[in-house]
Amino acid sequence: MNLHAIRAIYFFEMERTWRTLLQSIVSPVISTSLYFIVFGAAIGSRMTAIDGIAYGAFIVPGLIMLSLLTQSLSNASFGIFFPKFSGTIYEILSAPVSYVEIVVGYVGAAASKSILLGLIILATARLFVAFEIAHPLWMLAFLVLTAVAFSLFGFIIGIWADGFEKLQLVPMMIITPLTFLGGSFYSIDMLPPFWRTVTLANPVVYLVSGFRWSFYESSDVSVAISLGMTAAFLIACLTMVWWIFKTGYKLRA
Amino acid sequence: MQPIISVSGLTKTYASGFEALKTINLEIRPGEIFALLGPNGAGKTTLINIICGIVNPSSGVIRADGCDIVKDYRAARAKIGLVPQELSTNAFETVFAAVSFSRGLFGRPANPAYVEKVLRDLSLWDKKDSMIMTLSGGMKRRVMIAKALSHEPKILFLDEPTAGVDVELRRDMWEMVRSLRATGVTIILTTHYIEEAEEMADRIGVINKGEIILVEDKAALMNKLGKKQLILHLLDRLDAIPDELAGYRLELSGNGSELVYTYDAKGEGTGIAPLMRRLSDLKIDFQDLQTSQSSLEEIFVSLVRASP
């Protein structure tokens, strides 16, 4: 195992975060805080509780998940896309590193940034909304699992994309709508039966539901199913990454 | 002596069907400077990229210092440094961070003292805290060399190291390559410049259309290539070369307005002075003169075209 290489890639990527602190951390924290202020503190106080949870507190897990998904995707996709774009990927490909080490370095850094961001947003939310975390360890487990799974997904997008437009396509056109329609702002029990069934096809529902359970012991779907779906997505992404490196898809001619 | 790089039966056909390399066999000796010449699209970069692990070979075996580049890729790649043709750098990184990153990537523990030495050797130390994007093209090229040397490789590939750089920097590069060779590093470079190969290489290989068509010691090759031409622009046209000049390798061109003398620049005497005196005796006057020498690449491409 080339630990020096993993360390080099990991800290190189983390360094990019500190260099772009405003964009990487401050901006998502501020924009998510606006949700807490508007939907939590302002409108939330006039809305009825959902499953006995005040609306302001109800949306906290969903909003953290929203940031976690988008940041995991963008961090990981940009991390591997930029060396391809700038041509510096030659150095990664010619280095004595295995595929696993490359993935651990890039995905590890992207997931770390997202988890850090998730925890900062969690702390920030506490300034505006009162809430408790019933299962802190499960909350962390969901946070880490989701960050890693979506960082892997972002890594795949970064390799697939051959331009900035494609890089933004999946996060903007697929992930953000899925997150908004995945129960971040409402319980899917509030939907008519037909739309409830349709919503169950949205994988983000399971992430938000499981994450919310770790806070309030209340969920739209069973926690076991949430965990299973997250793990299945993780395995699917790992399989895809394995295939990419095995075939050299868009990396090695 | 065991070669430091041995390429045996290497072929590369891209997914598009383009056959970039056709059964390449090549051995590079330890400690030598080997210049690989060839026209654009000849397969130079493909060959280098395969040896360095950037492109997958279709078939064949390559060993770097005895290590198979596929089966024992970690050991093989750790011995190789690559400076690609394109100036691909992490624009927002500082010079020191970029070179340290490369060292770590190639499995070496952090060693600020060694990185400092490399940067000082390349006259980059006073730029160590500068972002790479602020450097000139020549400085960026040096940074790329520093990155390639950061893990103390035994083999260094320089793909067109002096393409687009000014004369002064080119001289500096040559000096740097010589000093690297003095430390025992084997250097393989691709170039279009005959003077570059002549200045630095111990041996020269020529590749064309995916095939190595020649590998020779520089001295032997230069003897073959030491042919120059003197072109005299005559005041009065000639219908034929006078019999008195039959002993010289002369040709008429430009409808008799140019007299072309081919001579051996490396020989004991070029024969130019006697020719001039003879022309003067024959009252053949000229208004201008020039000399020309074909580039190494041109000569070998013409050789390839001439071959079946």
Query: How does the overall form of chain B come out from the CA principal axes?
Result: elongated
* Count of distinct strands of chain A: 0
Average residue pLDDT of chain B: 87
In whole angstroms, how far apart are the ends of chain B?
34 Å
The ordered H/E elements of chain A are: HHHHHHHHHH
C-alpha-based Rg of chain A, rounded: 19 Å
* Mean pLDDT across every amino acid position of chain A: 88
Characteristic terms for this protein:
heterodimer, A: 253 residues, mainly alpha, 10 helices, B: 308 residues, alpha/beta, Rossmann fold, Alpha-Beta Plaits, 2 domains, 6-stranded mixed sheet, 4-stranded antiparallel sheet, 33% helix, elongated
Description:
The complex is a heterodimer of chains A (253) and B (308). Chain A has 253 residues and is mainly α. Chain A has one domain (3-247). In chain A, 77% of the residues lie in helices and 0% in strands. Chain A has helices at residues 3-19, 21-42, 55-86, 89-94, 99-128, 136-160, 164-180, 193-199, 203-216, 223-247. The longest helix of chain A is centred in the first third of the chain and has 32 residues, at 55-86. Chain A starts with a helix and ends in a 6-residue tail after the last helix. Chain B is of the alpha/beta class. Chain B folds into 2 domains: 5-223, Rossmann fold (3-Layer(aba) Sandwich); 227-292, Alpha-Beta Plaits (2-Layer Sandwich). Helix content of chain B is 33%, strand content 28%. Chain B contains 10 helices and 14 strands. In chain B, the strands form 3 sheets. A 6-stranded mixed β-sheet of chain B has the order 6-7-8-3-9-10, sandwiched between helices. A 4-stranded antiparallel β-sheet of chain B has the order 2-1-4-5. In chain B, strands 12-13-11-14 form a 4-stranded antiparallel β-sheet. Chain B starts with a strand and ends with a helix. In chain B, 38% of the residues are buried. Classes of the chains: A mainly alpha (253), B alpha/beta (308). The A-B interface holds A 2, 4-5, 7-9, 12, 15-16, 19, 86-88, 90-98, 248, 252-253 and B 14-15, 52-56, 73-78, 80, 82, 84, 86, 88-93, 97, 100-109, 147.
